[in-house]
Amino acid sequence: MADEPSSRAASAPAPHYALPSLCAELPEYTNAEADAIAQAFRSGNFCSLKDIPNRLGCGSVARHRFRKVLKSREPVAACGSYSRRSAFSEFEYIPSPYSMAESIRRQERLHHESQAERFGGGAWRAAGSACPLRHEAFGRADGFSVYQSEPDPFGAAEDQALRQKWLQDAAILAGPFRPAGRNKGRAGESSSELPSGSMLPEMVQQIHRQLQADWSLPFVVCSTEDEHIVIRVELSALDAAPGLVAYMNAFARSNHVVNAYRLRRTVEDWNVTPGDGHLYFTLQPPWVRSTSTETFYSLHPEQRAWGPRRQVAASDTSSISLSTTSGRGEELPLGT
Questions:
Q1: How far apart are CA 109 and CA 168, in angstroms?
Q2: Cβ pair 50, 78 in contact under 8 A
Q3: Which of 137, 221, 223, 317 could form a disulfide with 208 if both were Cys (CB 3.0 to 4.6 A apart)?
Q4: Residues annotated as region Disordered (predicted)?
Q5: Which pLDDT band, with edges at 50, 70 and 90, does 274 fall under?
Q6: What digits encode the pLDDT tens for the residues 201-250?
Q7: What angle is formed at CA 306 by the lines to CA 300 and CA 310, rounded to 5 degrees?
Q8: Contacts of 299 by beta carbon, 8 Å cutoff, 6+ apart
Q9: pLDDT band at 187 (very low <50, low <70, confident <90, very high)
């Protein structure tokens, strides 16, 4: 009767959570060998190909891994004696004195303290807790002070220059001074900023310098009585005259000296050979005025029906009789 409770307890079924599962019954999951082989061929794996047996069969990978585990549990044999020759030679270790500077400063401080105690009889004590200002007397009650509180001369000079600059800037109300005048440039320049006759020697020098830098020909640059700039070159020294003419056309159109002084070429005196063995080019300054009719009659003298205006004004005759020939051969007066 006493064995009945124990037999009942042994025959009682175990609860569901205590029953063994399939994973617990199997020694290892069935796809372990395939995973081990796949891990050996993946990037970043921890399984090497040498851990895989040469001949694959059912359970061969698991047995090989089990042998490796058993082999790793065996104690490692002690290594043999080391050779006396080593990669690095033996040397005596001497510590570097990293605190040498601190020790020197410490010794100097102790020496100064000992000297102060020796000659002063104790630690230094201030005469009072009040801190005098720079303008106050120092050391004596009568007001005499060896210390002279003077301003820095360099700082005072900088302040004075800065103050003078402020005053000058404040005096300018509407930009820099520009003199008045009716003659204005293309960019709004005043009459004093435009090229004038006083700059004529400078123009001649700069044009001659530009031509000599580009050509090896003997150029002659000069100014005439009517303040024109003439460029002359010998025809015998020219290898190709059309090349020089093309250069002078580009020179008069795009050279920075010509554009700076606002020179323009004189059409009637440009690329002219009067027969003296020279080639002439003439530039006109901006202050020299010329009319378009004079240029036209200079290029087409056959269109001029009477003499120059100066000759007409100087003559005492008040009228000029012009005549033409009719179809009959008779001269008919056109006017009186």
A1: 57
A2: no
A3: 221
A4: 178-197, 316-336
A5: confident
A6: 999 999 999 998 888 888 889 988 888 899 998 888 887 777 888 988 89
A7: 100
A8: 267, 268
A9: low
Q: How far is CA 225 from the centre of its chain?
A: 50
* Distance between start and end Cα atoms, the chain: 178
What three-state secondary structure class fits 243?
Answer: helix
The rounded distance, in Å, linking the Cα atoms of 12 and 20 is 16
Please give the Cα distance from 123 to 115 (Å, whole number).
11
Task: Identify the structural domains of the chain with CATH numbers, from first to last.
Answer: 30-58 (no CATH), 198-298 (3.30.980)
**3-class DSSP state of 227:** coil
Check residue 271 and give left, alpha or beta (phi > 0: left; psi -120 to 50: alpha). left
User: In the predicted model, is pLDDT for residue 135 greater than 70?
Assistant: no
- AA identity, residue 314: A
Rg, Å, the chain Cα set:
57
Between CA 114 and CA 117 the distance in angstroms is 5
User: Distance of CA 17 to CAs 20, 21, 158, 177, Å?
Assistant: 8, 9, 95, 105
Tokens in use for 31? 């796809």
H or E element in which residue 284 lies: strand 278-284
Provide the 10 A C-beta neighbour count for residue 13: 7
DSSP state of 86: -
CA distance 297 to 290: 12
Distance set, CA 130 to CA 133, 135, 136 (Å) = 10, 14, 12
DSSP calls for 152-188: -HHHHHHHHHHHHHHHHHHH-SSSS-----S---TTS
CA atoms of 332 and 323, how far apart (whole Å): 6
Closest CA to 53 of 36, 69, 70, 72: 36
Output 14 or 136, whichever has higher pLDDT. Answer: 14
| Cβ–Cβ under 8 Å, residues 334 and 319 | no
Q: Six-digit token pair at 139? A: 């050391």
